[in-house]
Design goal:
Radius of gyration: 23 Å
Helix content: 10-25%
Structural class: alpha+beta
Number of domains: 3
Largest sheet: 6 strands, antiparallel
Number of helices: 14
Length: 460
């Protein structure tokens, strides 16, 4: 149920709330901006007092969930540098990476220490980038640190003084810079293209403003399941400040709506009326943060038609939480070094898959060599690139990314050449043998198959 966002807190309730929260700076990478005094919250004309209470307030009643959530990547999408100290993370580290920056083209050049850095973008899981003292993203030929292999790579090497406009999905309480609606920049930094309440994706990014819920303790006063914000809400005087953001608004690329494009996504401009979009690709792999687009499965040759999924899939399975516990880590396993996947926040075992697909147990496969496989080995190959990629071995090398795809559907009747559009900008909503099979069947083993006819072989 949508919370009563317009209802102001009483002065007494606000005072008690402020007194109970204090100003803890947290630890283990917690940003001190997470605890913000209620009195500092803005008043939106016609909306009453709109109050963020911070993730730490949620911890008071939801301690176990909060502890799990702090082990995920969401809170670390953007990290403020405090007192010149490098941010820290639950599983990963960026120690020594800043000193390896080369070829920076921004006006201030490469930061020499964290005293020259205002914020760090990411650092959990895949990669890290830095923002200079003026809030501009450090761009150049060797400015991105990749956690997988410790390499440095390019980022927007031709763009000088790139502004940070990613706050819609990297922060909590983002309001884009607008001369009329929000003529402000975070910390008064010229490179910041807006303002926010908290760094990272915190509880209230997905659940909406928590002030009323904390005061009333009524579950009707907090968003339990967010629905995508409308264009009208985003264009309103408050710029949808404090409204809960749905997964589909950020886990999309072609469906991105922002202040710069007038909240009309490229997919909308191409004829699709909904949230999300086509599956964008580059360099022979799908680009990252497109999980919703992969689930949506739009045919890029017929964008206006929308999803190609069966109605039963859309109604029964078309939700992230069918497989994910959004409050728990997915890519790391507690006590296991490295980004190994299969963490407590994801259902990835064959038993999990067979909850919906009971007749497709690989252990019962008519192909004995497949009995040891997991469903996701074939249906979720690493076809997406966030930071690094590599080539498989064999006579015809296959691109291998660093994130598993969420397309799932395999179509062996399609040739490898039909995985992407002719210009390489979009992926079709199915997996060809190139990715579903040939990352393993790469032509180097006697059991490799060249038959792509699905009807000629009963895999399950």
């Amino acid at each position: 149920m949508t919370p009563r966002l317009g209802a102001p807190l009483s002065l007494l309730a606000a005072f008690l709330l402020l007194f109970s929260l204090g100003c803890s700076t947290g630890g283990g990478g917690d940003d001190p901006t997470l605890s913000v005094a209620v009195s500092r919250q803005p008043t939106i004309p016609g909306q009453g007092t709109r109050v963020f209470v911070s993730a730490e307030a949620c911890q008071n009643c939801h301690g176990a969930i909060y502890a799990d959530f702090r082990q995920t990547g969401h809170p670390y999408k953007l990290n403020k540098v405090v007192n010149g100290q490098m941010p820290t993370y639950p599983y990963s580290s960026i120690a020594g990476a800043l000193e390896r920056i080369t070829g920076a083209v921004n006006s201030l050049g490469a930061p020499q220490s964290y005293a020259d850095v205002s914020y760090v973008i990411g650092g959990f899981g895949w990669k890290a980038r830095w923002m200079d003292r003026n809030g501009f993203i450090v761009t150049g030929t060797g400015v991105q640190y990749n956690l997988d292999d410790g390499s440095m790579s390019a980022y927007n090497a031709a763009q000088v003084d790139k502004k940070y406009d990613c706050g819609e999905c990297h922060t909590t309480g983002w309001r884009p810079f607008d001369a009329a609606l929000n003529p402000n920049r975070q910390d008064n930094l010229p490179g910041m293209e807006g303002t926010f309440h908290s760094t990272g994706v915190q509880c209230e990014a997905c659940h909406g403003l928590g002030g009323i819920h904390v005061a009333t303790m009524n579950k009707a006063d907090i968003v339990r399941k967010a629905t995508p914000r409308t264009k009208a809400e985003l264009e309103a005087a408050d710029q949808a400040y404090g409204r809960a953001i749905a997964c589909s608004e950020c886990h999309t690329r072609d469906g991105e709506r922002n202040h710069a494009n007038g909240y009309v996504s490229p997919a909308n401009a191409a004829g699709f009326a909904g949230v999300g979009g086509r599956i964008m690709a580059a360099g022979g792999l799908i680009q990252h943060h497109e999980q919703f687009d992969e689930l949506l499965a739009i045919d890029p040759d017929n964008t206006a038609a929308g999803s190609t999924r069966m109605a039963s899939f859309q109604t029964a399975k078309f939700t992230c939480t069918a497989c994910h516990d959004q409050h728990k880590v997915t890519i790391y396993k507690p006590g296991t070094p490295g980004r190994v996947g299969g963490g407590p926040g994801v259902k990835s075992s064959n038993a999990d898959c067979m909850t919906c697909h009971p007749n497709n147990d690989p252990a019962q496969s008519k192909h004995p060599a497949m009995a040891h496989l997991n469903c996701i080995d074939c249906h979720m190959p690493k076809m997406v690139k966030s930071a690094t990629s590599r080539k498989s071995g064999g006579a015809v090398p296959v691109n291998i990314g660093d994130i598993k795809t969420h397309i799932f559907r395999i179509n062996l009747s399609k040739t490898d050449a039909s995985q992407f559009t002719a210009d390489g900008k979009f992926a079709y909503p199915y997996l060809t043998a190139q990715f579903a099979c040939h990352q393993c069947h790469d032509g180097t083993r006697a059991h490799d198959r060249t038959d792509r006819n699905e009807s000629g072989f009963d895999f399950h």
